[in-house]
Design brief:
Number of helices: 10
CATH architecture of the largest domain: 2-Layer Sandwich
Number of strands: 13
Strand content: 15-25%
CATH topology of the largest domain: Nucleotidyltransferase, domain 5
Number of domains: 2
Structural class: alpha/beta
Distance between the termini: 13 Å
Largest sheet: 5 strands, mixed
Radius of gyration: 19 Å
Length: 308
């Protein structure tokens, strides 16, 4: 299969989604974005994704049927072998055949399915902050917390197919990690101390943090320390040398929080002698990570051949 074929990547989010036509070197030749509007139901979302891919193709000056394949990064737990979204709480989906449905909506274009954070980590491993970094573990902090693992240049799914669900780690009290360290939980904890019902965006949290807001700094710092300790556990188990951390809050604050995470990883990883060799980096691709990673999934499928 021609490695120079044009592919498209789709980054499907709970509230917004984007699609892009991607060339062989990772260049985005045309892109489009829109609201997901998941409340309209699965079929309606699939039609909107197909229209978005068509719009991106129009921006690249091509027709949809020129694409070699489309990769889509979807939130939640997936069965990649069955091409099905098993459970995506933020979309309200269970057992949805996303890849096959989108392929049909695109007139038979090959579609490959991947978890959205897996796709983002793969994008960083190929084109971004972890390029040339060997095996990679990635963490994305948003409404929840997602994780992804890339080993030997390929996404690791595990024998059950759902590896990387980092935010669903359970602590000694039976609570999920994302209940303490996601952006949503950080916002909730800040409001619990301050009082009031007004939520803060990632940008507002970051601004308050930089301005020295004591409550915001205390809550964010404690969340990042917890994340660092949990990441240290993953590094100990997987023995990966590079960890990429993404998501709006981390992207806004950069080194201020990455330093906290790094300190915790290096203090708690085993054996201690490897701590100094672990690299903790922020996403370089930011909002493009998932799109480029999804496109890379499509390109890899073309390279290995086989049925779509």
């Amino acid at each position: 299969m021609n490695d120079g074929a044009l592919v498209a990547g789709v980054d499907l989010g709970g509230t917004h989604m984007q699609a892009g036509v991607v060339g062989a070197r990772g260049e985005i030749l045309g892109r489009a974005s829109a609201k997901t509007d998941a409340q309209g139901g699965f079929d309606a979302v699939v039609e909107r994704i197909a229209a978005l891919v068509g719009e991106a193709c129009g921006g690249a000056g091509i027709k949809v049927d020129v694409l070699g394949a489309v990769g889509i990064g979807a939130p939640g737990a997936l069965d990649v072998s069955r091409r099905v979204v098993l459970e995506a709480p933020n979309l309200g989906w269970n057992d949805k055949p996303l890849a096959d449905a989108l392929g049909a909506a695109l007139g038979g274009v090959r579609v490959e399915l991947e978890n959205d954070v897996n796709a983002a980590v793969l994008g960083e491993a190929i084109y971004g902050a972890a390029k040339g970094g060997g095996d990679v573990f990635g963490v994305w902090i948003g409404t929840g917390i997602g994780g992804g693992i890339v080993l030997d240049g390929r996404v690791f799914h595990g024998s059950l197919g759902t590896a990387g669900e980092f935010g669903r780690m359970v602590d000694s009290d039976g609570a999920y990690l994302e209940a303490s360290a996601s952006r949503k939980s950080i916002d909730r904890r800040i409001r619990a101390v301050r009082g009031g019902d007004e939520s803060m965006s990632a940008g507002e949290m970051a601004a308050a943090y930089r301005e020295g807001d004591v409550i915001v700094r205390e809550v964010i710092n404690s969340a990042m320390v917890l994340l660092g300790r949990c990441i240290a556990n993953q590094v100990t188990v997987l023995s990966v040398g590079t960890v990429v951390v993404g998501g709006g809050l981390v992207e806004e604050l950069g080194e201020a929080v990455l330093a906290l995470i790094t300190d915790e990883v290096r203090e708690h990883v085993f054996p201690a002698s490897v701590g100094g060799r672990v690299k903790i980096v922020g996403t370089a691709l930011k909002e493009n990570a998932g799109l480029l990673g999804a496109a890379a999934v499509a390109r890899e499928a073309l390279a290995v051949g086989g049925a779509g």
